[in-house]
Each structure stands twice: as structure tokens, then as C-alpha cells.
Amino acid sequence: MERQRKAQLAAALxxxxxxxxxITDEDELRVYECDGLTIFKARPELVVLPxxxxxxxAVARLCHRERVPFVARGAGTGLSxxxxxxxxxxxxxxxxxxxxxxxxxxxxxxxxxxxxVNVWLSNKIAGDNFYYAPDPASQTACSIGGNIAxxxxxxxxxxxxxxxxxxxxxxxxxxxGEVVEFGGKxxxxxxxxxxxxxxxSEGTFGICTKITVRILRKPEAVKxxxxxxxxxxxxxxxxxxxxxxxxxxxxxxxxxxxxIQAVEKGVRAGYPTDAGSVLLVELDGPRAEVEALxxxxxxxxxxxxxxxxxxxxxxxxxxxxxxxxxxxxxAMGQIxxxxxxxDAVIPRTKLPQILREIGAxxxxxxxxVANVFHAGDGNLHPLILYDGRNEGELHKAEEMGxxxxxxxxxxxxSITGEHGVGREKRDYMPLMYTPADLEAMxxxxxxxxxxxxxxxxxxxxxxxxxVEAGAVGRDGLRYRPHRLEVMGLAQRF
Amino acid sequence: MGDPAGxxxxxxxxxxxxxxxxxxxxAPFAVDGLTPGVVAAPGSExxxxxxxxxxxxxxxxxxxxxxGTKTGLGNPPRRLDLVLxxxxxxxxxxxxxxxxxxxxxxxxxxxxxxxxxxQKGQFIALDPAAAARATVGGILAANASGPxxxxxxxxxxxxxxxxxxxxxxxxxxxxxxxxxNVTGYDMNKLYVGSLGTLGILTEVTFRLYPLPATEETHLxxxxxxxxxxxxxxxxxxxxxxxxAVELLSAAAAAAAARAANVPWSPGQVGLAVMIGSVxxxxxxxxxxxxxxxxxxxxxxxxxLRGAAHSACWEAVREFPGPDAxxxxxxxxxxxxxxxxxxxxxxxxxxxxxxxxxxxxxxxGPGIVRFSVDAGGVPPERAAxxxxxxxxxxxxxxxxxxxxxxxxxxxxxxxVWGPVGKALRLMQGLKAQFDPKGILNPGRFVGGI
Lengths: 493, 448
Fold this sequence. Notes:
The structure holds two protein chains of two kinds. Chain A is an alpha+beta fold. Chain A folds into four domains: 3-93, Uridine Diphospho-n-acetylenolpyruvylglucosamine Reductase, domain 2; 100-217, 2-Layer Sandwich (Uridine Diphospho-n-acetylenolpyruvylglucosamine Reductase, domain 3), CATH 3.30.465; 221-335, 2-Layer Sandwich (Alpha-Beta Plaits), CATH 3.30.70.2190; 432-486, no CATH class. Helices cover 34% and strands 19% of the residues of chain A. Chain A has 17 helices and 18 strands. Chain A has a seven-stranded antiparallel β-sheet with strand order 15-12-14-13-17-18-16, sandwiched between helices. Chain A has a five-stranded antiparallel β-sheet with strand order 5-6-10-8-9. Chain A has a four-stranded mixed β-sheet with strand order 1-2-4-3. In chain A, strand 8 (167-173) and strand 9 form a beta hairpin. In chain A, helix 1 (3-17) runs antiparallel to helix 3 (53-66), helix 8 crosses helix 10 (287-303) and helix 13 (351-365) runs antiparallel to helix 14 (393-410). Chain B is α+β, with helices and mostly antiparallel strands. Among the domains of chain B are: 97-210, Uridine Diphospho-n-acetylenolpyruvylglucosamine Reductase, domain 3; 215-240 and 247-304, Alpha-Beta Plaits; 328-416, Alpha-Beta Plaits. In chain B, strands 15-12-14-13-17-18-16-19 form an eight-stranded antiparallel β-sheet, sandwiched between helices. Chain B has a five-stranded antiparallel β-sheet with strand order 5-6-10-8-9. In chain B, strand 5 and strand 6 (101-105) form a beta hairpin. In chain B, helix 1 runs antiparallel to helix 2 and helix 9 (250-260) packs antiparallel against helix 11 (306-317). The radius of gyration of chain B is 22 Å and the shape is globular. The interface between A and B is large, with 91 and 85 residues.
């Protein structure tokens, strides 16, 4: 963007949000150049920080009129490069719209602004014995608007589902500045389920400015069991047996030896560092139900040669058992300068197989892999450890990640369970979807975001068909063959 | 469309003459008085695709047809040339109990699917009416659900993947056969509840649930809806995890009690609470439910198990039942605390208009279903009733949809009611997915 045009745009934005609501300084803008996945960077030319829906509307109208790309950003904790200003332009930071607008406990609903930090809602209603169920690992930092964009999960998804299962209404500013409402406190609004389609659209359909969510009564009882196993197979077989017994835990989380060792170097959660696997199973619900299920779960662990079972006696012990799991990503810094996290999903019964294959890839690429996963829903988080200072290691990590993703698809899975496609995985979309499948998605995008100005360059593979003519692709990006494409690991249409 | 004979010929070529009906044989497939020229039952997804492509070429209007249990839903179609029956697509495609997922062809009935899954102690957690005839594809298209939605949600929560044939015959999939997936847009959400206006579902993958070890029911009689509603509010605000909490108007309660073979005093309203879990937890929770009901002034309390429990819920699920004059059925949605008020005002307004009315409500989700006998009633009066109750639902923070109505009533009301400014987006979606407007034209919101 030319200097003069940028200055004009900044002035116009300041007229909307005030002097202190626009960031133009290059050093300050650097904060906004990436999200939690730092390997991709793209600096916006301006950041605007609206406080009201009316200001978001005015910003959208301005960008639309001036044909400036723009992208919304919550807390910047995303893990797929979803909130990157790939084409420069304006970033709309929603941190100042962080209020809880209404708590309606009798109707089991809350209405919040997009910049509200996920855990604030549960904190606010804890005194009423209510909570907001989706709990991504970043819940103390991530914003609910970002959760809407990514359809965030969390550890309680086996029993309680993901964000979309808890969102019942949205107020949205469309890319042309028009405001629409989908749903509300009452369920089953007539017409297409636009709330359902909007959640998980990764910021490409509009900017939500008001969100109505379900809030749930806290369970009467919670019991957390930790099983220490000699091997990941034994832990994995335990999970299968729990499923076969018709038991539905609130969470089932698993970690392998390397993850355990990293965690113990970091937060010291008390996991035995020589164990092959740690399995965390949490049961919640009415006290009589939880108490009746502890024994069967313990018995199934014993049948699978568990070395040790710890059952948290109180909340403090429970939090200690969870501490290691919650800190697992961060703890990788203890054993590796860098890591690259994957988010593929497989049908749960394929878990032992994919773990063997990941082990083989690890040997082949001579890169260590720590495995942390949501075993209850088949969502893997292999953490590929590398050292970015060594020439080519990041590329090796990416390449190995691509191979893992491809195998997950071949086993009937998905390339991302909760982190989103964003910038990172857009060229892997054809691994999973045919051109016709992608075209159906693009039809929806064209309805919400016909000019493609809002959050360009995300989700969809860059277009190859336009290369020869040197034209700009559908999402405004020039085609450059990716290394993985040259290797035949990913392809575009 | 000007060439019904051409359409019939193409259909016969694609699916075989034995699977095509024309003339009087097509009469049972009429929708709101419009009889299709052709009814065809393809035997594969590929045949569905070829049939739709042919219809698209001829600009023939198509209505997909599962079990025919929801043909009353929607505004009268603008036109109807071809009914596409999914009856022959009725197989289990893929079932892996360890993954707790099952992929079924869209024309399989819910009852057949459940019979298959029950063998492994699992089930599709949807319990709409008419499971023996309703197909999984039809249930999705109509977004049908039942009392257990309190515990398990609706199709939008349970469907993880679909295959769908679009208006021009293109076949796509949405989602994946894993329970957690955010790869690309969640197309499943778009198709659930779209009443066949965006495409025809051919395959559905569900996440499954384990069958509860035990399910039992507490049924209480109350003198007033307010008292029963107060008990329901206590239960829903407590840490109990009921699978269903249903408020029953006097007539509906009497029917449920009769089905469960328990005595019932005329005029008493009912509150039925279903608990499912391991036996100890069921009994502990039922004791708490009984305490809440007595505290709110219940006049009689019944503990239903086994056949009585099943029969009670069958009566609720199949409300108003096969023998009831079911001419006008409405579904109101409001925030849950407003359920008793919507129910009593809806009944009162019916009384003022000399309309016989009964109602049942899923209190947790805030859904009230009214069944009104509009037989012999001037359609203006029935239409006026719909609009008035719709106004009450709006006043209480919700909305109201007509599930079934006589044609002369449908011609006087919009069965869906207003959808606000979002209509522009919905019309845009329809134009993208079905630009020629051949799929169920006119039946959905805003004339879509």
C-alpha cells in the first residue's frame, strides 16, 4: 500500500475508533504479524481496535469501499496461521470488545462479545455452579471469537462436543458492513443453520460481534484417574475397552514417554519418566454414576497391565494430574529448541497403527516426535521436535508432518481436528476433498464474502489453473509451487 | 417443465422401468395436493446423480422422499414433476463399533438402523416420531428430533459426515468419519434442516452413543402448568442429568398415563422425567426428581420402568398419536423458562377460538408442540390462531413453525415465519447450490 493511501486509510479509521484505536507504528505492528504458529508471518499495514459493533460495521464498510483486505483477530493463540494478514491491509483486533453482556442462568444462556477470554465466562458463572464447556488448552488466553472462527475443541469433547455444539446465536458484521443475526436464545430458528455454518469458517464469512452460548450446570462429581502404562499399546487398548464397555468419559487423554519426560523437566506433575504412556481418564456427572464407574475403569486398566493407578482425591490432586497434560506443548521447550505440532484426526481404532507409523517416520527423518493426544476422539497432536538453527530441519519437520497427515487421511481421518486449516494446511485440502467438494465450500464463501476481501488466502488451496497466464488465483494469491507439491506429497487444483 | 413423458422415459432408462411410477400410481406421493408426474426410486448414488442431472436438464421440479413422514412440512410447493424416492438406498455402509461411528444410506429407516446398532450396545441418539418409517436422510433434511434431545442434542450435533447429490448431479461429501474435524467449512450444518432444497443426501455418518445401562421415568401429575413448570426448572437447574423432561398438557398427560397403565385424574397436567445411567445412579436421581416434584406440589407420582417407561415415551414421541385429529401441528421455540407460559397461552388462545388443543413441551430445549383439531373450522380462524400464537412466541423471545396444516390454512400463512435479514444469505445459498430452483421449489423459508 502506498504511503499516502495508508495515511488516508489510517485517518479514516481514526475517525471511526479514535486516535488510540489505530496502530501504524511498524514496531507495534510486529505483534500482529503471526499467531501461535510462528513459522508463518505477515504483517498488517494497519491495526484497528474497535470497541463497538457500530465501529466494526464502519471499519468493514470502509475496507469494502476502499477494496482493502481485512482480517479479524482475537487473542492470536491460533495454531494454523488463521489470523494472518496475508495480503497486508487492515487487521481488526477485537480485544477491546471483551465484555460479558448478559448471563441468564435460568435459561442457561450467556451473551458475550468476541474478544472475551474463554475462561472468563466460566469464572463469572462459577458462583452459580454453571460453566461454559468448550475448554481449549489456551482457554486462559484465547478469545471466544477466535473459538467461533476455529470451532475450537478441548479436552472435554468426547462427552461435551466442540464450540459449535454450544453456540446458539450470533450477531455478525458481513464483509460489506451489513449486520445480520442468526439464531438467539431460542433453539431451532427457521431457515438454514447459518450459526452452524459460520462456526469454524475461520474468519472468512464475517466478524461476529455478539455471541449467544449455552452454559451448563457443573457436574455434581468429577473423578480423574491416571494410569501409568509400560507401552502406548496397553493404554490404547484400555481406551478401546472403555468404549466397548459403554462408558463415556468426559475426557480421555494420552501422552507418550517423550512427552512425559518433557513435562517432568518442566512443570513436575509427578509422572514417572520411565513410563511408556500416561492415560488420563476423567469421569463426571451425578455422584452415584461417577462412583459406579470408577471401579470398572480401574479394572479395565488392570486388565491391560497398568503399572500404577492414581485417583485424585480432591481438586488439588486433580489439577496436579492435569497440570502435565495442560503444559505439554509448552514443556517441549525443555527438550527441543523448536517443535511443529500436528492436529490430524483418525478413527480411534487406528491409533496403534498410526503411532507405529509415526515412529517409523521419526526414524526415517531422524527427528524425535512426542505424542500427546485426545485419545477419546482420535485427535492426534504429534509434536515434531527440530532445531530451527540447523539448515533444513524445519523443512524436514514440515515434510514429515505432511506424510503423517497423508497417512491419517488414508486411514479415514481428517487433517485437522481443532486447529483449523488457515494458512498452514490450505494446500493439503485436496488430500481430503475433491475439487467438487471444495467447490461446494467455495459456493458458501461466495455468498458471505463475494469479493474475498475478508481474510484472503485461507483454507483453500492456491490455484494452479491460473499459473500459465500468470493470473492471480481465486483467493488473490499467485501460484508458487510448494516444496511438498514438487515432492508429490500435496497437490493443488 | 413441458415434457413429462420425456422425464418418465429418462427415469426408466436410468433406474429401470420397474422402479418408476407414473399416472395414478404416483398419487400416494402427492405433496400438498400436487401429484408428481413421475416417481423414481434409484438403486445407487450414481443413479441418484444421473436422475438429478436429467431432471436438471429438463428443469423438472424434484422432491426427495424418504419415508414420507414429513411431507406436511413446508409451504406448498410451487411445482412438482419428479419425486425421487430413496427407499432402495437402505443399507449400512460402514459400522465400526470401536470408533462409535456408523455410515448409513439415506433411505434406511431409523428403526432398521437402531436394530443393527443395538446388537453392539450402541445407538443413534435421535428419537423422532415414526422411527419405523422415517429415514435417516429425511430426519436430517427435516431436522427431526425427540424428547432425548435434552441429553444428546439434534442432528447438527450427531452427524459427522454426509454424501450429497447436488441439483446438477454433482456428488460431494461433507465432513469426515471422525468425531472431531474442522477441515474446511462444516457443510453438514448447511444440509441439516435444509429440507432437500440444496441437494439430496445419499449417505449419513453419525457419531454414536452407548445405550444407557438403564432408563426409567418419573411421571408426576400437577394441578397447573405453572407448578409443573416450576418442578421442571428445579430439575434442569440441578446437577441431575435427565435424558428428557417433558411437560404434558392434560389431554397429552392422560394419553401418556393410559399408555403407561397408571391412573390419572382428568384435568391434571403431567411432567415426565427420563433418567438414564447405571442402575444405582438412575435410582438416586429419580429419588431427587420425586423430591423436586413433591416440593412443587405434585398431586400424584409414578415411577415407570420397563414396558411402562417405553410406552409412556412412545406416547410422547408420537404426539398427538395416529388416532388424533392431527390437522394443525405447531412447534414453538422459546427460552426454557417461558415454556409454561407459551403452553398455557397457546391453549387459552385455542379455547377462545373454539379449537380443541393439546400440547407437549421439551422443557430443556424450550420446544412446545401444539396439536389443534382444525377439522370443520374455517381456515381463516385456524390461520389467525397460528399468527396469534406466533406473536406470543416472538413476544417471549422465540419463534414458531407450522409442522403440519391443511392446504387451505397453509395458503394463508407462511409456515416458517420471518427469518429476518439473514434471508438474503439464505437466498444466496439457494442460488449458488440450485440456480434453476428445481429442488423442492417454494417449500422452504422466504419462498426458497
